[in-house]
Amino acid sequence: MHAEEGFVEYTQALHWLHGLLRFGQRPGLERMQWVLEQVGNPERRIPFIHVAGTNGKGSTCAFLTQMLMEAGYSVGTFTSPYLVDFRERIRFNGSMIAEEDLLQLVNEVKVWVQRCEQETEFGSPTEFEVITLIAILYFSRVARPAVVVWETGLGGRLDSTNVVLPLVSVITNIGMDHTQVLGDSLEDIAREKAGIIKPGVPVVTGEVRPELLEVFEERARQTKSTLYHIGEHFQAEQVEEQLNDQQFRYKSIHRRAEASYRLTMNGIHQTTNAAVALMTIDILRNYFSFLLEEEEISRGLQQTRWPGRLEVISPRPMVILDGAHNQEGMEALVSSLERLLPDGVQLHLLFSGLADKPLAKMAESLAPVKSKIKKLHVTTFDFPRAAEANSLQKSFLAGGWEQEFLDAVPDWRAFLLSWMREKQSAKADDWLVVCGSLYFIAQVRAFFPTIVEEAGE
User: Fold this and answer.
1) Start-to-end Cα distance in the chain
2) Would you state the torsion angle of the CA atoms of residues 156, 157, 163, 167, taken in this order, to the nearest 10 degrees?
3) Is 427 a residue whose pLDDT tops 60?
4) What does the alpha-carbon distance between residue 438 and residue 334 come to, in Å, rounded to a whole number?
5) Given a cut of 80, is residue 199 above it in pLDDT?
6) Which residues does the UniProt record annotate as the domain Mur ligase central (predicted)?
7) Which residues contact 239 (CB under 8 A, 6 or more apart)?
8) What is the edge-to-edge ordering of all strands in the sheet holding 147-151?
9) pLDDT above 50 for 301
10) At what angle do helices 10-19 and 99-119 cross, to 10 degrees?
């Protein structure tokens, strides 16, 4: 390919990349394996920590990255989706891939994408597959980190990230999400996630349900891998919880003594995610000679931030963002709100979700905090799969909510602006929790500084 055939600008490269969305989701590893073979299998030269699961993947990756960086390791991180900038998905030591690096790699990969489409029976790689390929090339040639924290996109077994042989495999938990691709039962979904378990590679999980652990144990037996699960091989117990500060105790079979840690991230589920990350670190220290001092681990956990997960973006008036985008995510949000919401404070929810999610079940999950909710505002946002506000209202009615609780918001930006203006002047104690799809949370987060500015005028 001649230089003039390549993209000259980053925005052109990004536009081409997003254009691959037309190929949709096509589970399978054959396209990835074909391209990687053509470029000399660079994935074999990188140490990976492979992280799968329904919820908590991103937070667990963030904990792992921060702890390793505190100990002086160079760390690559591959996660999805992004909140503001596409380049958030590929990071080196916390910094996004440079635009010029991404442009150069897109130009290189584009050749192989076209050849894969023309020369094989597999067809063109999908957008996510191409992003995965770019990440592998970036980490193997440009950044060269000591270790890469590697998050699956969807499922595990047939996910494009599953072309690597990691040091450790991690499965955070199992929930009913992406059922159209992964299966209709929790056991089916667990089987797909268990597909990242490789021969002889240790596995860490935060899952506790016996029927799902059995799926992992069966796969671990087949691959002669050691499975470590929370509650048996390691434990986490929350000691105290306040907004932006929680403390928990941790112990594992790899440690002589129990340790106590603090997190800035909110929600009891984050203590589980942190414990899963800690057990992974314990394995790296014990079996792979990684050197992390106790104070580096402690500092790493406390300094970890993961945007859009019970994130306070305005303390007064109180506005919290949470990407509770499926039933389990909504249940985790509810259990956190039950403990964090001060007495007498009234709760407003602004929700938007994707049409293909179990919206009525998500609405049902809010029942435990119903007495504290003053109003439930539903809205739509600019995204192809976003549910319309009126269909969200129907879902919430089907989920047991009365009409008087519900309010369809035609424009969430106008709603947020009026909320900020009204509550700033009233000095009211109401909390607003903006929740639902991470794509929605991303748009709110990107727009919020403008709202604050306009509200203050």
Assistant:
1) 54
2) 60
3) no
4) 17
5) yes
6) 51-279
7) 247, 248, 249, 260
8) 95-96, 90-92, 75-78, 147-151, 48-52, 168-171, 203-205, 227-229
9) yes
10) 40
**For residue 178, what pLDDT is reported?**
66
Angle, vertex CA 149, rays to CA 169 and CA 334, nearest 5: 80
Q: Is the Cβ–Cβ distance between 97 and 145 less than 8 Å?
A: no
Dist. CA 323–CA 336, nearest whole Å? 13
Distance CA 247, CA 174 (A): 25
pTM of the model: 0.93
Amino acid type, 31: R
Q: Check whether 207 has a pLDDT greater than 50.
A: yes
State pLDDT tens for residues 102-140: 999 999 999 999 999 999 999 999 999 999 999 999 999
Structural tokens at position 58: 């991103």
433 token code pair: 């929790």
Mapping DSSP onto H, E and C, the string for 318-365 reads EEEEECCCCHHHHHHHHHHHHHHCCCCCCEEEEEECECCCCHHHHHHC
CB 198 within 8 A of CB 166: yes
Angle among Cα 350, 353, 355 to the nearest 5 degrees reads 145
Q: Which has the minimum average pLDDT: 64-73, 129-138, 222-231, 321-330?
A: 321-330
Query: Alpha-carbon distance 359 to 393, whole Å?
Result: 10
What pLDDT was estimated at residue 2? 43
